[in-house]
Design brief:
heterodimer; A: mainly alpha; MetI-like fold; globular; disordered N terminus; B: alpha/beta; Rossmann fold; 2 domains; 6-stranded mixed sheet; 8 helices; about 35% helix; ATP binding (chain B); ABC_transporter-like_ATP-bd (chain B); ABC transporter ATP-binding protein (chain B); ATP-binding (chain B)
Chain lengths: ~300, ~270
């Protein structure tokens, strides 16, 4: 039982007609949340449709949702870009349109996930090592600080020079986009670990190594997971850029193809897909966060009472 | 003048301080002297309260005795051994909650044992015993954020007791608690102290707390912290806070502190102004 109000997420206000269905409060809460999400997206789409209906939004340039979502099988055809660049391959060959969509999503999502995992492991590891070994800090930290403001886009040519075409350059881009910030963030989290925690461990006779592994790492994990979640959307952006410049195939490639063939419907369809994927991956990461960081109270909604 | 070697006396005291001083950031422009010339002996099993205005360095002395910081002058011994670093013999209990939120209560209590690599069965047994002594047996598998502030400090005391310390160092441990809880915690602490036989060094700026707890009250001056007076308290326990003797002691301590609080206040104002 948590007593402090600030530590508990304010639940969305109960919806009266839902309450009468006899559902559990938890289920009712998530249903209400879903309802609001649908309403929010519906409102946005509705305005768009309205603008189309009164003739302000040109369907050739800004096709409304019912147009670009209306014929999904037709849109799915375009996702079979996997083998297009190979000479002598019949475009009709290969996976079915829906399989192609799944493959494209899978490829992009895999790059984001692998990139995130590598970036998180590397940056937390190196951040901790930098604080642990003073010499390493002096040798490495200035370079990392210098490189961290460089836009990941600037690394794109490097990715292609080193890795050519395929998964590796896209993953490299994700890692590069997250790594430097996350190292700096790890170091600042370490510096913010409560002195009392460290002193408790010291009075109990913990060695420096034990203090790091048993106190500092668990103490900084919650903030780092939040940093990771904030950077998740960045990872999605970078992966699209990497894919769209011919680094590989994937959602970015589809968008680029849509641009080159002047197909706004396909652009918006892909955007919708990417939005949905980004939302789902954020939700997944939040689930992971709840599981791994069972001790951290949810703080969303602290300001809701204002 | 402070003597430099232990051979100059032959006490069995739990803690011996001779000419202890501490200057923070020594040798820099920000250097300031927190403690000067502290001579203090604490007998085994004695309850000593360090009383003084905020920022007078009494917490600093506790950290020096704990071995978490090094003094810049003088020497400190604990049971004949010079203090050169932290030791499980001297457990420090902090003002703020210092329980690890990612561990359960029993894992927190047995943290020191797990550092030494003790097997789980032993850790559980020790944690169970220590929690029983603070009356929290049923909280074994709870997490710290499920406990109230007073319960958390009791767990912190249990964690210290699990190390079987000879000296308990307490840095305003009940300062964050409300008045009623604090009174209960004082009674509880006296029970634990009597059971454990450890010496207690208890830092506070509350005169009432000193009256309720101490065998001896050490009154500190404002910065740099020096010992102004040491007042033995012979009132029998349990103490009635409204007994005339308690009132007299409270008046005496208030008088002792009054000038120091004024000085500390003036100094802080001067610091803020300049």
């Amino acid at each position: 039982m948590r007593s402090d109000i600030a530590g508990v997420a304010a639940p969305p206000r109960p919806v009266p007609w839902l309450a009468s269905l006899g559902l559990s409060p938890g289920l009712r809460q998530s249903l209400a949340r879903c309802g609001w999400a649908v309403l929010s997206v519906g409102l946005f789409a509705g305005i768009w449709e309205l603008l189309w209906a009164i003739g302000w939004a040109d369907p050739k340039l800004l096709p409304p949702p019912h147009v670009f979502l209306g014929d999904i099988p037709d849109q799915a055809r375009y996702f079979n870009t996997a083998t297009r660049w190979q000479i002598g391959v019949n475009p009709a060959d290969g996976p079915s349109p829906y399989e192609a969509v799944a493959i494209t999503i899978g490829a992009t999502g895999m790059r984001v996930l692998v990139g995130l995992l590598i970036a998180a492991t590397l940056s937390i590891g190196i951040g901790v090592l930098i604080r642990y070994f003073g010499l390493l800090e002096k040798l490495v930290l200035p370079t990392i600080t210098l490189l961290s403001p460089v836009s990941p886009i600037a690394w794109l040519p490097v990715a292609i020079f080193i890795f050519g075409i395929g998964n590796a350059p896209a993953i490299f881009m994700v890692v590069v986009a997250l790594f430097f910030h996350m190292v700096l963030s790890t170091i600042s989290q370490i510096d913010n670990v409560s002195r009392a925690f460290i002193n408790v461990a010291r009075t109990m006779g913990a060695t420096k190594r034990q203090i790091y592994t048993r106190v500092i790492v668990p103490a900084i994990l919650p903030q780092l997971l939040i940093v990771l979640r904030l950077n998740l959307f960045g990872a999605w952006m970078v992966v699209l850029v990497a894919e769209s410049t011919g680094v590989g195939f994937g959602l970015g490639q589809v968008i680029m193809m849509a641009r080159n063939t002047f197909n706004p419907s396909l652009v918006f369809f892909t955007i919708a897909l990417i939005g949905l994927l980004g939302f789902l991956s954020d939700w997944l990461l939040r689930l992971v966060q709840k599981r791994v960081l069972y001790w951290v109270p949810e703080t969303a909604g602290v300001l809701r009472g204002l | 003048m402070a003597s430099d070697s232990y051979a100059d006396w032959s006490s069995q005291d739990a803690v011996v301080c001779r000419g202890v001083g501490k200057t923070w950031a020594a040798g820099t422009a920000r250097a300031h002297e927190a403690l000067r010339g502290i001579d203090l002996d604490v007998a085994p099993g004695e309850f000593v309260v360090l009383l003084g205005p905020s920022g007078c360095g009494k917490s600093t002395l506790l950290y020096l005795i704990a071995g978490l910081e090094r003094q810049t002058a003088g020497r400190i011994w604990a049971f004949r051994d010079p203090v050169e670093g932290p030791s499980p013999d001297r457990s420090l209990i902090f003002q703020e909650t210092s329980l690890f939120p990612w561990l359960t209560v029993w894992q927190n209590v047995s943290f020191g044992l797990s550092i030494r690599g003790a097997p789980e069965a032993e850790r559980r047994a020790v944690a169970r015993e220590a929690l029983a002594r603070v009356g929290l047996s049923e909280a074994m598998d709870k997490r710290p954020d499920e406990l109230s502030g007073g319960m958390r400090q009791r767990v912190a005391v249990a964690r210290a007791l699990a190390m079987r310390p000879k000296v308990l160092l307490m840095d305003e441990p009940f300062a964050a608690l409300d008045v009623q809880t604090r009174a209960k915690m004082q009674d509880f602490l006296l029970d634990v102290w009597r059971d454990s036989g450890a010496s207690v060094l208890f830092v506070t700026h509350h005169i009432d707390e000193a009256v309720a707890l101490a065998d001896r009250v050490v009154v500190f001056t404002a910065r740099p912290g020096r010992i102004k007076s040491i007042i033995p308290v012979t009132l029998p326990r349990p103490r009635d806070p409204f007994a005339p003797e308690s009132e007299a002691l409270r008046r005496l301590l208030t008088e002792e502190l009054k000038g120091e609080v004024d000085r500390a206040f003036a100094e802080q104002e001067a610091l803020a102004a300049g």
